[in-house]
Amino acid sequence: QVQLVESGGGLVQAGGSLRLSCAASSRIISTYGMGWFRQTPGKEREFVAAIKWSGDNTHYASSVKGRFTISRDTAKNTMYLQMNSLNPEDTAVYYCGAGSRWYNPSDYWGQGTQVTVSS
Length: 119
Fold this sequence. Notes:
Elements: E1 4-7, E2 10-13, E3 18-24, E4 33-39, E5 46-52, E6 58-60, E7 68-73, E8 78-83, E9 92-99, E10 108-109, E11 113-118
């Protein structure tokens, strides 16, 4: 069982940046993936970005490609999401996920962190 803890959410103005972190309670297998998903009220959780723990693959939703960057620090069992050029449509609860399908890492979930972008 992997426990995930997100941090780094908050309130930012449009055009600003935030960096989210997700710390895993145990070592992640290299073939596994970790990723970020987001959800707004009344909508389904949507994929944002994922990274294969070995580091040789990343995958982004088209809506964030070029603005968000996913990375990981294997020594710290921690994943990051650098979010730049934020806009109000990025406002959501962001969830960290981990799992055996690196491109859709959804076997384990964190508790979520709120990101609010004001216009």
